[in-house]
Design a protein that fits this description.
Radius of gyration: 36 Å
Mean pLDDT: 74
Shape: globular
CATH architecture of one domain: Orthogonal Bundle
Number of helices: 11
Order of helices and strands: EEEEHEEEHHEEEEHHHHHHHH
CATH superfamily of one domain: Transferase(Phosphotransferase) domain 1
Strand order of the largest sheet: 1-2-3-4-6-5
Largest sheet: 6 strands, antiparallel
Helix content: 25-40%
Length: 440
Amino acid sequence: MVSTAGGAPPPIELPLEPPDVLAPGAKAGPWVVERELGRGGMGAVYAVVHEDIGKRAALKIMHRKLVHGSSAERILLEARVVNQIGHPNIVDVFETGTLPDGRAYIVMERLEGVPLGMRCDEGKILPDQVIHILLQICDALIAAHAAGVVHRDLKVDNIFLTDSGVKVLDWGIAKVISNDPRHTIEGQLVGTPQYLAPEQARGAPVSPATDVYSLGVLAYELFLEQLPFEAETSAEIMAMHLRAAPPPPSELWPEIPPALEELMLAMLAKAPDARPSMLSVARTLEHVKDELERRRRTNAGATDKPTNTPLPEVTRTPRWASAPGLAPTEPAAWQRRGRRWQFVVGALALAASATMFVLTRDTESDAAPAPPPVAVEQVATPDADTPAAEAREPAPPPAAAPVEAPAKKVEAARKIHHHTLPAKPRRDASHDPDGTIEAY
């Protein structure tokens, strides 16, 4: 830099880009911003309210850097895709628009609840609850595939749990199976490496089987609390999706229903044609749910057996029954009433037996003669100075071996056969390494 006679050169004024954040009170059409809800790689989401009718909603606005190019079409595609499917387990979008600076936005229903990824970080989700979540996702995806739409980015952070049910989010990178090239960006890798199907990693065309694979990864993570493939870099993870076999689920959950293990491994097949359809996945999950319910009833019935029955040498406790935070299964009302009657009848019988024993003992003590003296063992000895006979006290009976309480034996058996999952999920905090499109 060259100095001038007047001293320091004047500062160079750079054009300042307008802020990329909408402050409370800003408007997008008739919608007034209340606060920001979150942001990702494609855009930000705000809580908004309609200025005239007071309706509350969520406003998604794309980032300013993505205004130019085909990315602007991406956020509007979500509105078309969602309305094309029209399913209660898919977030509803009911308005689109454009800000004065050219940024496109959509207005959708505001959800009250928690993302599935956050719920996973809080602790283990029990198998029956996992199946309940997966079945609702299957319903949404069956409807999407029937409408010719492939989601392409299924993961825990794109599933939202509400009181009314599961919502599948983030359809902005969905693939509409048609000949319209505007519906997707070809030649770019889209998705999240940890959940990426092999055909996505190769850049090959996607199909409904692509969502089956990603849902298999998600199911593996929810049931076993870890991802099937983990590595340091995105490239290594994608290479594992292409070539490596996932660890068998039974290694992490020895009591897993065989049908569930077979289903998860089939969903993670490398070839799309080898994977089951989404409808087959839902039907198998229903059968697994029934199997877990039978196990629960069997396990509950075993606790009603008398405590004096011998304990089996091997006690196998189903993994779902030993999961942290699982409350004992509540018996049915008729079972509880039956046990109460059994207790009353047993108590009366015991009292009657004790009374008869006391009366009989008193009667016998009045009529019976005195007992004869206890005979002593005679010991012969040739020594004249020694008494002819001497009494030897019988040896005391051997001490009985301590009997271990049944409760302690049950607890010991449970400790032997109790298998625990990892203390916390091994899912990385960031699901969107460099080179992928993050959730927004």
